[in-house]
């Protein structure tokens, strides 16, 4: 298998990582995800790693890369379902996944994404309103 | 990997099959899914097979089994993302997946499930209403 399927849910993309991320698979995933964000105008990316029990610095870096790429494309990334052992390993490896949002499971991750997008939309609207207030009447 | 993760979305469960279904994995999936339907009181099961490019009679039977088990537990099963080659192979193998609903992608599958559950709820309500009408006034 050379590709991990990317599922579309409304404004979000969902990826379930079930296998070890060897180099080619990871590079394909990065590439496919960025293209999918662009194609579907996605606002959020959910990465489920509940099936991942072993993590290394390569996989940590890949997740960080995906989050950074998505942010540049105006999409938030939430990593869900992390096993405790994986969290321990990531911190011990010195990879605290800075800038990556996390949630306990897919439902909570989806809620977090909706909140983030809602908040952004709200703050944009609030900012626009404030700008209006600044205008001379 | 001995388990395929089962993701919960509201009343639905989502399973993405990305690897070859050898015996043990398939039996674990059947078992886990039936338990998850019971535990989460799920009304629908979505099985995404967009990453499956090769299918055999074993996998065809497993999908049929899951659908039958789910139906007994009052949950509908929708298989989504089937590749054309897989559909051809299934029919040539004499496994037309009778009783399994299918949809082109996850979004359409989710809509189909919602419609099915809505319809059932509606027909239950309609039946209840008709029953009411039968009552002497």
Automatic annotation (TrEMBL), chains A, B:
Q: InterPro entries, from UniProt?
A: Bact_StressResp_Reg (IPR051932), STAS_dom (IPR002645), STAS_dom_sf (IPR036513)
| Segments forming domain STAS | 29-113
PANTHER family the record matches: RSBT ANTAGONIST PROTEIN RSBS, RSBT ANTAGONIST PROTEIN RSBS-RELATED
User: What is the protein's name according to its record?
Assistant: Stressosome protein rsbS
Q: Which gene encodes it?
A: rsbS
